[in-house]
Specification:
The complex is a heterodimer. Chain A is of the alpha/beta class. Chain A is 34% helix and 27% strand. Chain A has helices at 25-36, 58-66, 78-91, 105-115, 140-154, 234-249, 257-275, and strands at residues 16-21, 41-43, 52-55, 70-73, 95-97, 122-130, 160-166, 170-176, 182-188, 195-202, 206-210, 215-220, 223-228. The model of chain A is unreliable at 1-5 (pLDDT under 50). In chain B, helix 4 runs parallel beside helix 5, helix 5 (110-123) packs antiparallel against helix 12 (340-359) and helix 9 (209-219) crosses helix 12. Chain B is globular. Chain B starts with 7 loop residues before the first strand and ends in a 10-residue tail after the last strand. The model of chain B has no long low-confidence stretch (mean pLDDT 95). The chains are: A alpha/beta, B alpha/beta. The interface between A and B is large, with 39 and 42 residues.
Chain lengths: 281, 374
């Protein structure tokens, strides 16, 4: 989407005012910090003074789009994404779904290495995502970020989906791609602690982005703990920077609604496959 | 010395693959390898390797398996032949009344595994199939799991990537297809000949027993259905012989446990050491991430050979502990950590995975033949 800019700020060198409309204080804090690191960008509290909006509610995003704002939508439900995409299209503003995981430093490095051709033809993507958060049911939208990265690596939709689940807190997804490509991703919720791992095996090399490799050791009274060094909120900065640059340059952002739809379709197929005990399509 | 603790005399049958297995037997104080034997009609390279090993141990090399088993007063046989001969040699040893140790894989053929299992049951001998279950990190994982820290397991994932090359990379143009056996014979020099034999073997068959034995030991659960994808992604030898060098398997197991396996011979460039080998375990009370290579020491120095591993495994007593386990079983204390029944079940999982990769559907794992009642 590279439409005209309604509220200025898209012009090179022009200042941009961004309104944060996020229900959760956690992402708002991260977006606020990220926003402060961007040159020529300011946070606006006043709706009328905003050029762009970061929102996690579709109604807010739709209103912003209707008011001529560029929108970064922190919500990957496909209906919401489609509606806001359409509204931005009518308004001629930029729309970007917030696939933040793509911008996590470790994931970004794996993708960079892949795109630079260092790893050759991708053969296998292996992902573990264990979350300390309680499950609110296995929903397709919950696994879209990882599926998005998998589809991005193979550059195509899957040709087979197999999945198994356990209650509401575990999902195992097994994808097949053309020319023998394959991916395994498991998702667990309610684990005491969080852990992520992404491994890409290519024909000439491999990349391993594994929290296990990035642990410090704490020896305290009565216990020893491994503590994840963490990657801060840099992923939010990367996400926001891409959004701002796309607006300024009047170009399509690196993440589009098409990406969300593709990832969601695969995620939904996986969730459905798990419901019928592993069906393959 | 009591009868139970006596030293056991062992025949080494067909030492043609890696010789780590008969070496482990010979190194253990409870076992003496007293003869090397093979069939007279084996090819010349077989006799050469057998002869070298026998000479090193200072024992005779006999080109007649039955005569060696009969004349050398042995109690056990260790088989490290080509995979397709493991069961044949093993069965002949068992029929001679011997306990038996087989190199991995037990066999590429599930029918052969069933035959081996029936023979072992019929003769009531002890059996053992080589594995890596006693590596320090795996034992640590076992202790944590069995100690209950994770609660009841519901997911077990294993990554088993060997960063070894296997001849020319995929896409290399050659005058003729690569002959599997010739390639394996060449590979003997650098120890990457795990698939030695006439029949080409995919990575699932060559190495799959290791991660599946971990999963079996940690969960104690059988696999009843699998879904698998396989590919020839790295090596021209695998392409020419139509056997996979990369595979992913989803395992549906007893007790509602889900398992997965990623396995591949991913090329030497893809890891600074032997390869990324990991376990990820989830239980009702927690999760565990295990690096199979630990503990290790990093060694770097000027002029270091690029092929030399920078991270070196230490405190690895796997070979000794496996033989200790076998000795304990022979002394009368139950079965081994991986007997032919367990290895046969693993072979059945691999068999189902290969079928699934061809059919594109989940496949049931074939159950072991029932125990015959007298």
């Amino acid at each position: 989407m590279a439409g005209s800019v309604n509220r200025g700020a898209g012009s090179a060198g022009g200042g941009m005012n961004i309104v944060l409309k996020l229900g959760s204080p956690c992402p708002e804090r991260d977006f606020d910090a990220a926003l402060r690191r961007l040159r020529g960008v300011a946070r606006s509290v006043e709706w009328a003074a905003g050029d762009a909006v970061v929102a996690d509610e579709p109604d807010v995003a739709l209103a912003a789009a209707g008011d001529g704002c560029h929108v970064l939508l922190h919500d990957l439900e496909p209906d919401h994404v489609a509606a806001v995409e359409q509204a931005c299209g009518l308004a001629g503003t930029t729309f970007m779904p917030a696939h933040a995981w793509r911008f996590r430093p470790s994931v970004r490095e794996v993708i960079r290495s892949h795109r630079a051709g260092e790893l050759g033809v991708p053969g296998l993507v292996r992902i573990h995502r264990w979350s300390g958060e309680a499950s609110s049911g296995i929903r397709a939208a919950a696994i879209v970020p990882e599926i998005d990265v998998i589809l991005g690596v193979f550059g195509a939709s899957e040709e087979s989906v197999h999945a198994v689940s356990r209650g509401d807190d575990f999902l195992q997804v097994h994808l097949g791609f053309a020319d023998g490509g394959m991916a395994l991703a498991d998702f667990a919720w309610g684990v005491p602690g969080s852990y992520r791992s992404l491994c890409l095996i290519g024909s000439t090399g491999a990349a391993y982005a594994d929290d296990h490799h990035n642990m410090n050791l704490l020896l305290a009274a009565g216990f020893v703990r491994a503590i994840n060094v963490g990657q801060g909120a840099i992923e939010v900065h990367g996400l926001l920077a891409e959004f701002v640059e796309a607006v300024r340059e009047g170009r399509e952002p690196a993440v589009t609604a098409v990406d969300t739809r593709s990832a969601f379709a695969t995620a939904r197929a996986a969730v459905n496959a798990a419901r019928v005990a592993g069906e393959v399509r | 010395m009591s009868q139970a603790r006596r030293i056991r005399r062992v025949a080494a049958l067909s030492v043609v693959k890696h010789d780590y297995l008969p070496r482990a037997v010979a190194a253990h104080p409870r076992f003496d390898v007293v003869v090397v034997a093979d069939d007279a009609d084996r090819p010349a390279w077989t006799h050469e390797r057998n002869t070298l090993f026998a000479r090193e141990l200072g024992v005779p090399y006999v080109r007649d398996v039955e005569r060696a088993l009969r004349d050398f007063d042995v109690e056990a046989a260790v088989v490290s032949s080509e995979a397709e001969r493991h069961c044949d040699l093993g069965i002949r040893a068992v029929e001679a009344g011997l306990h038996v140790i087989l190199d991995k894989p037990m066999s590429p053929s599930l029918e052969e595994c069933d035959r081996m299992l029936r023979t072992v049951r019929a003769h009531g001998v002890k059996s053992f199939v080589w594995n890596r279950n006693f590596l320090p990190a795996v034992l640590n994982a076992r202790d944590i799991v069995h100690g209950g820290a994770l609660g009841a397991l519901f997911a077990v994932h294993c990554d088993f990537y060997f960063s070894k090359d296997a001849g020319p990379p995929k896409g290399t143009r050659l005058e003729k297809p690569i002959d599997w056996l010739e390639r394996q014979l060449e590979a003997h020099a650098d120890g990457s000949d795990g698939g030695v034999g006439v029949a080409p073997l995919g990575e699932l068959q060559v190495e799959g027993i290791y991660p599946l034995a971990y999963i079996r030991m940690l969960t104690g659960a059988r696999v009843h259905r699998v879904f698998a994808r396989t590919a020839t992604h790295f090596h021209q030898a695998n392409v020419d012989n139509e056997v996979e060098d990369l595979a992913t398997v989803t395992l549906e197991m007893e007790g509602g446990i889900t398992g997965t396996l990623c396995i591949g011979r991913i090329g030497a460039a893809s890891h600074p050491d032997i390869g990324e080998i990991k376990l990820h375990l989830l239980g009702r009370a927690g999760g565990l991430v295990v690096a199979e290579a630990r503990p290790e020491v990093a060694v770097h120095y000027r002029g270091q050979d690029p092929k030399e591993f920078r991270h070196r495994r230490i405190a690895d007593e796997n070979d000794f502990l496996l033989m200790e386990d076998f000795a304990r079983a022979l002394d009368g204390d139950g079965c081994t950590v991986l007997d032919v029944e367990g290895a046969r079940d693993i072979c059945a999982v691999i068999d189902a995975a290969v079928r699934s990769s061809r059919s594109g559907r989940p496949e049931d794992v074939v159950a072991a033949p029932p125990v015959q009642r007298a």
